[in-house]
Amino acid sequence: DQQVKQNSPSLSVQEGRISILNCDYTNSMFDYFLWYKKYPAEGPTFLISISSIKDKNEDGRFTVFLNKSAKHLSLHIVPSQPGDSAVYFCAASAEGTGRRALTFGSGTRLQVQP
Amino acid sequence: NAGVTQTPKFQVLKTGQSMTLQCAQDMNHNSMYWYRQDPGMGLRLIYYSASEGTTDKGEVPNGYNVSRLNKREFSLRLESAAPSQTSVYFCASSAGPPAGQYFGPGTRLTVT
Question: What would the pLDDT profile of A10-65 be if each residue is shown by its tens digit?
């Protein structure tokens, strides 16, 4: 029973265009959401997060949108760069459960074509 | 600033052998975590430690034990390795929201 789902295993975009990565969740107790980026043979790197009290958070080229009623969040990367090519994981946590341990989606592999 | 370090980077074990994966962080974080990642799946929590001296089970704790040796170090032990434990293991630490968890580079374990 996957509580965090990333239904697109891969995404390919042209350099300079927008990349949109999607994530759905089922647990209504989740109140904190994060995106991680992972290169091969490295650990995941924290990118951006959003609390459930917000619907948008922006950090440079990265913006995360949260739609609580749809239990959906998305990561927008604008403009996309070849160095953004990596696997992106969506993760979520609920206060009081496992001291903020994360539940991860299965990841989306982003390829940015030069 | 090393962040989160893990040793070893690679390990091959035979079924039934034991080993300990080491993890250390130098960011003065209270919380530490062990995850495993299998092909096509996200990371799954094995154990976590909210603070020195405390540990709790995560989603997939069977076959593992942990020790929070001090604030910096959190080790994961496989007492009798099984092929189903072939995976990449990641250690992480956290200071809590809004910051995320910081991950080590991983240990790739193969059990034959």
Answer: 999 999 999 999 999 999 999 899 999 999 989 999 999 999 999 999 999 999 99
Strand, helix or coil for residue A83: helix
B99 to chain A, any CB pair closer than 8 A? The answer is yes
* Closest CA–CA distance from residue A99 to any residue of chain B (Å): 6
Measured between beta carbons, which residues in chain B are less than 8 angstroms from residue A98?
45, 48, 56, 58
CB nearest B43 (choices: A32, A41, A104):
A104
Enumerate the β-bridge partners of residue A86. Answer: A110
**Burial of residue A34, with CB atoms counted within 10 A of its CB: 0-12 exposed, 13-18 middle, 19 or more buried:** buried
Q: Say which DSSP state B73 is in.
A: B
Question: Amino acid identity of B54?
Answer: T
| B67 close to B79: Cβ distance less than 8 angstroms | no
Q: Does B31 touch chain A (CB under 8 A)?
A: yes
